[in-house]
Amino acid sequence: MIKMEVLSDKCKGCGLCTTACPKKIVVIQKDARNNKGYFTAACIDQEACVSCAMCALICPDCAIKVSKYKE
After folding, report:
1. Distance (Å, whole) CA 44 – CA 24
2. Most exposed: 8, 45, 66, 70, by fewest CB within 10 Å?
3. Which domains are seen in the chain, by residue range?
4. What's the rounded Cα separation, in Å, for the pair 11 and 42?
């Protein structure tokens, strides 16, 4: 199983992660803001994530963690 996690307190909603994701499963949530007032990124389909970590690599604020774990 793969887990893509957004550290919402660090996310500024720049959207770079949404363009980097080859599966297009990372989106900017327009209904949730962090404590700084920014809209934050989220993965809309964890099952479709291929763990390439392109979203985490492109994030200028290190707000994304991608990890693999056994069920």
Report:
1. 9
2. 70
3. 4-66 (3.30.70.20)
4. 10
Tokens of 20: 């980097």
Q: How many CB atoms lie within 10 A of CB 9?
A: 12
- Residue 48, SS3 per DSSP: helix
Question: pLDDT in tens for each of the 71 residues of the chain?
Answer: 778 999 999 999 999 999 999 999 999 999 989 999 999 999 999 999 999 999 999 999 999 999 887 66
The H or E element containing residue 55 is: helix 54-58
β-bridge partners, 5:
65
Closest CA to 47 of 31, 64, 63, 71: 71
**Full-prediction pTM beyond 0.85?**
yes
